[in-house]
């Protein structure tokens, strides 16, 4: 029997989206001084969802001064146990409103509702719960006996996990006693603005969290503001370099979480069915818009044909389409710019002679979509094996021995994550010791937990988010 | 592949084959099962899934207290699950102990299958001759499906050849009746064992592989069924032959049943969505399917008094 799942759309009535949003500065929504705004679009339908304000240098200055005042007058004086209460309150409010936030995220970002509901939102509230617990225990975190926050943290986050990246930034910053000015990505501001409302509902003191929306210019003004004490950025390696240049010679602290080109390494003794799921989850989860995506599949030659056959047959089962449908596996590409970037690299793969296979799925007429794509016959010299595509495109390479797997996996300027699939524990440990990556998964991929530190080596950045280590990004280095 | 694995060479070859099958990562299997459980089946898809599930039920009674009257009642229910609505399909099968097979057959005629649990069900602890006699008796009484249990003791002791040969020996006396091989996955404990037992049973000639007797907890679970569905899919890729899967025990609600159907659809494939290749071993499940069906046609929930108890 052909079992066609009927449409199962999540209700959009769960959210109210305002026609226009101001900037969240000093506990209130305010209009930008020069009054400019931009549109935020549902990438699955091209529908305009709202107008969002663009913060200019004056607005950024207002936000930084509000954060500075809140730090000096309230937040730095508040005992950790009291800060924790606010964080717990925020965590609870997020959990209570998770359905609504999931819908909003899916509308603005294009990711499937199943993912925003089952992955993003649970992790967002978990992150606040986790760091709430640390707020009154900082002296036991292994950094110093009297750990000191930086003051004002400037935080710039990407569009791939909008609210989750906000949580990764704001939760540890507030737990350690910093105040923040956060700039969401310009294509995905809405959940950050909903978070601003949650801060109001939680009665968080004014100025502790400020949210300035805008594009790269807003981000630059924020990073370069002289009263910012700490910069935390997640995004591309190129922008990361610009930020590092911009703050060189200042006393600003910096953590960067940048690009990746992770190797997902499948040995011939892998648990194959789960490895196939891990490959799919590694590169097609969130349309491949994942900095730690397993974009290079390194598969042992002795099982390569079998793995590819199973993978392709699995990919034909993926359901691409309306992100609001609860059964959708692959949603929309977040923006036309990203779509163009992915298309360009797919074309480069074709030109350089790799063999392309595309999952047979019908792409909707409106919005931006890319069907799951697999390139075989890829070599280390191909662009698609070297550059971060940030889309649902897998480059398949093969290897013969563990040594070769390590060399190929490490042969990239990036070093964010890696995956090892083997039932042999000793080999997994041998590999993990040699792989140059901040995060290494064994028999799983793209698994996150607030208690587990995340971050890169090499050109994937420095600093950790999550876990006890994540506190270190927001505490000043003690000079003894 | 119905030859037995004789002698030390055969036994060693069989063991090497089974141990070379890819392992199952438990966390990954649970994750996959949980993801498939989150599918949302609504409207028309749900209506069709409920009817399909009804047509896949092996309506089961396996109690010491079973009487001819009870079996007649159950057989009638299998024929006409909802006496007030003739559009409801029949169940696939009535599943009883072998001495009751004749009574079930009298009632259902050729309209539904009659399965008998044979081979010293549920423990399987008896001599081969006794198990064969049990099987022959069931077939003579009219059973056209035999649900046999494997010797879990022999399996856990690593004596795969013994388990294999016993399945072959039972198949020989089935006289054309379909053979369902119960792995009793709750006693095999690991997913690696479930995968090995699935392959072993298929190689020995099983027409169906079945999770459980229903007498041991845990009985059927989604992850166990996932591993078995992967096994029949891989067997099909290797041989071109489709083997059926029957989760049994513990599946009580329409919602559960639909989760299994989703898993069948996305693991083995839509070709398996037929009573010839997928069954539910259950008793209470049928009534929940009927109540859900009534709700979908009338728009409101009925109650347990609107479905027959057996």
Query: Structural class given helices, strands, pairing of chain B?
Result: alpha/beta
Q: Spell out the CATH superfamily of the largest domain in chain A.
A: Aldehyde Dehydrogenase, Chain A, domain 1
Mean pLDDT of chain B: 95
Question: Low-confidence stretches of chain A at least 5 residues in length (pLDDT < 50)?
Answer: none
Q: Which percent band covers the strand fraction of chain B? A: 5-15%
Question: Helices, strands, pairings?
Answer:
The complex is a heterodimer of chains A (480) and B (310).
Chain A lengths: L19 E2 L1 E3 L2 E3 L6 E5 L6 E6 L3 H19 L4 H17 L1 H12 L3 H22 L17 E5 L5 H14 L3 E5 L6 H12 L7 E3 L4 H9 L5 E5 L2 H11 L5 E5 L5 E4 L5 H12 L12 E5 H15 L20 H16 L3 E4 L14 E4 L6 H4 L6 E7 L2 H9 L6 E5 L3 H10 L4 E4 L18 E2 L18
Parallel strand pairs in A: 1-5, 6-7, 6-9, 7-8, 9-10, 11-12, 11-16, 12-15, 14-15, 16-17
Antiparallel strand pairs in A: 2-3, 4-5, 10-18, 13-14
Helix pairs in contact in A: 2-4, 3-4, 4-5, 9-10
Chain B lengths: L6 H13 L6 H12 L5 H13 L1 E4 L7 H12 L13 E5 L3 H8 L4 E5 L10 H13 L4 E5 L2 H5 L3 H13 L5 E5 L2 H4 L2 H13 L4 E3 L11 H18 L4 E3 L7 H14 L12 E3 L2 H14 L12
Parallel strand pairs in B: 1-2, 1-8, 2-3, 3-4, 4-5, 5-6, 6-7
Features:
heterodimer, A: 480 residues, alpha/beta, Aldehyde Dehydrogenase, Chain A, domain 1, Aldehyde Dehydrogenase, Chain A, domain 2, six-stranded mixed beta sheet, B: eight-stranded parallel beta sheet, 13 helices, 8 strands, globular
Walkthrough of the structure:
The complex is a heterodimer of chains A (480) and B (310). By secondary structure, chain A is of the alpha/beta class. Chain A has 14 helices and 18 strands. Chain A has 2 domains: 12-258 and 459-474, Aldehyde Dehydrogenase, Chain A, domain 1, CATH 3.40.605; 263-448, 3-Layer(aba) Sandwich (Aldehyde Dehydrogenase, Chain A, domain 2), CATH 3.40.309.10. Chain B has a single domain (26-301), classed as Alpha-Beta Barrel (TIM Barrel), CATH 3.20.20.70. Chain B has helices at residues 7-19, 26-37, 43-55, 68-79, 101-108, 128-140, 152-156, 160-172, 185-188, 191-203, 222-239, 254-267, 285-298; strands at 57-60, 93-97, 113-117, 145-149, 178-182, 208-210, 244-246, 280-282. In chain B, strands 7-6-5-4-3-2-1-8 form an 8-stranded parallel sheet.
């Amino acid at each position: 029997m052909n079992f066609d799942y009927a449409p199962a759309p999540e209700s959009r009535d769960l959210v109210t989206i305002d026609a226009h949003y101001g900037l969240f500065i000093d506990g209130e929504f305010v209009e930008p001084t020069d009054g400019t705004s931009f549109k935020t679009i549902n990438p699955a339908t091209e529908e305009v969802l709202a107008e969002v304000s663009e913060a200019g240098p004056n607005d950024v200055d207002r936000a930084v001064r509000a954060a500075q005042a809140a730090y000096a007058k309230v937040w730095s004086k508040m005992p950790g146990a009291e800060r924790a209460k606010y964080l717990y309150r925020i965590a609870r409010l997020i959990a209570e409103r998770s359905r609504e936030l999931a819908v909003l995220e899916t509308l603005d970002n294009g990711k499937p509702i199943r993912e925003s509901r089952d992955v993003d939102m649970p992790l967002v509230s978990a992150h606040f719960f986790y760091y709430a617990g640390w707020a009154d225990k900082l002296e036991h975190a292994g950094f110093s006996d009297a750990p000191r926050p930086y003051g004002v943290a400037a935080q710039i986050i990407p569009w791939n996990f909008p609210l989750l990246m906000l949580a990764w930034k704001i939760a540890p910053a507030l737990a350690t006693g910093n105040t923040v000015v956060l700039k969401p990505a310009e294509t995905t501001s809405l959940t950050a603005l909903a978070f601003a409302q949650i801060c109001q509902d939680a009665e968080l003191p004014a100025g502790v969290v400020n949210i300035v929306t805008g594009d790269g210019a807003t981000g630059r003004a924020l990073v370069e503001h002289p009263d910012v004490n700490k910069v935390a950025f997640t995004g591309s390696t190129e922008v990361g370099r610009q930020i590092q240049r911009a703050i060189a010679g200042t006393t600003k602290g910096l953590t960067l979480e940048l690009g990746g080109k992770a190797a997902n390494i499948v040995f011939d003794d892998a648990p194959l069915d789960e490895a196939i799921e891990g490959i799919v989850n590694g590169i097609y989860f969130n349309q491949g818009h994942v900095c730690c995506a397993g974009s290079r599949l390194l598969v042992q030659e002795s099982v390569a044909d079998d793995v590819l056959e199973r993978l392709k047959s699995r990919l034909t089962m993926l359901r691409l389409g309306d992100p609001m449908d609860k059964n959708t596996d692959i949603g929309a590409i977040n923006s036309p710019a990203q779509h163009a970037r992915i298309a360009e690299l797919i074309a480069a793969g074709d030109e350089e002679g790799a063999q392309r296979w595309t999952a047979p799925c019908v792409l909707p007429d409106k919005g931006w979509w890319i069907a799951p794509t697999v390139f075989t016959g890829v070599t280390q010299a191909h662009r698609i094996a070297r550059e971060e595509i940030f889309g649902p495109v897998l480059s398949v390479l093969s290897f013969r021995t563990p040594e070769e797997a390590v060399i190929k996996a490490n042969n990239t300027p990036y070093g964010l994550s890696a995956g090892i699939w083997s039932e042999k524990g000793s080999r997994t440990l041998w590999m993990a010791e040699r792989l140059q990556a901040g995060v290494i998964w064994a028999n799983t991929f793209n698994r996150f937990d607030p208690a587990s530190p995340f971050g890169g080596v090499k050109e994937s950045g420095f600093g950790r988010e999550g876990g006890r280590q994540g506190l270190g990004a927001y505490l000043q280095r003690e000079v003894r | 592949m119905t030859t037995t694995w004789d002698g030390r060479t055969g036994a060693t070859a069989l063991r090497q084959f089974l141990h070379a099958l890819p392992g199952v990562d438990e966390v990954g299997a649970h994750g996959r099962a949980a993801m498939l459980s989150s599918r949302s089946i609504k409207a028309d898809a749900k209506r069709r899934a409920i009817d399909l599930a009804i047509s896949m039920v092996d309506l089961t009674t396996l109690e010491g207290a079973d009487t001819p009257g009870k079996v007649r009642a159950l057989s009638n229910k299998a024929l006409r699950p909802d006496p007030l609505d003739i559009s409801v399909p029949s169940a696939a099968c009535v599943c009883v102990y072998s001495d009751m097979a004749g009574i079930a057959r009298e009632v259902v005629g050729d309209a539904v299958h009659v399965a008998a649990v044979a081979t010293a069900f549920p423990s399987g602890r008896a001599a081969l001759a006794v198990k064969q006699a049990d099987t022959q008796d069931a077939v003579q009484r009219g059973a056209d499906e035999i649900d046999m249990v494997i010797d879990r003791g022999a399996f856990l002791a690593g004596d795969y050849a013994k388990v294999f040969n016993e399945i072959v020996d039972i198949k020989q006396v089935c006289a054309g009746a379909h053979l369902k091989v119960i792995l009793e996955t709750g006693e095999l404990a690991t997913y690696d064992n479930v995968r090995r037992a699935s392959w072993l049973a298929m190689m020995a000639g099983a027409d169906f592989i079945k999770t459980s007797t229903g007498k041991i907890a845990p009985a059927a679970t989604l992850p166990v069924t996932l591993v078995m569905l992967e096994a029949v899919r891989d067997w099909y890729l290797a041989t071109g032959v489709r083997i059926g899967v029957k989760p049994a025990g513990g599946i009580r609600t329409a919602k559960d049943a639909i989760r299994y159907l989703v898993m069948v659809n996305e693991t083995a494939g839509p070709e398996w969505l037929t009573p010839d290749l997928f069954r539910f071993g259950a008793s209470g499940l049928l009534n929940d399917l009927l109540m859900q069906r009534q709700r979908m046609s009338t728009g409101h929930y009925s109650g347990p008094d609107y479905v027959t108890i057996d």
